[in-house]
Amino acid sequence: MNITVNGKKIVIEAGVSLKLFLKDRGIDPAKTVVAINGNVVGSEDCGEIILQKNDVLDVMSFVGGG
């Protein structure tokens, strides 16, 4: 199924949770802000959200530095 992540179209399997999607890409949900179709999702909800066809994700990770 097709979704868009940070402006790039990608294909994923149906039935994948947001948490699994992030972890498979080496992204820590606790250090990441995700908006799905313009709605910000809390990291505590990532395991319950199943990605849907044509979802648009904006994934922003926190980066430390100085």
Question: Can you summarize this structure?
Answer:
The protein is mainly beta and 66 residues long. The protein is built from 1 helix and 5 strands. A hairpin with a 2-residue loop joins strand 3 and strand 4.
Features:
Ubiquitin-like (UB roll); 1 helix; 66 residues; 5-stranded mixed beta sheet; single chain; mainly beta
Describe this protein's structure:
- By secondary structure, this protein is mainly β.
- The chain has one domain (2-61): Beta-grasp domain (Ubiquitin-like (UB roll)).
- It has one helix and five strands.
- The chain has one helix spanning 18-24; strands at residues 2-5, 8-11, 32-36, 39-41, 56-61.
- A five-stranded mixed sheet has the order 2-1-5-3-4, with no helix packed on it.
- A hairpin with a 2-residue loop joins strand 1 and strand 2.
- The longest helix is centred in the N-terminal third of the chain and has 7 residues, at 18-24.
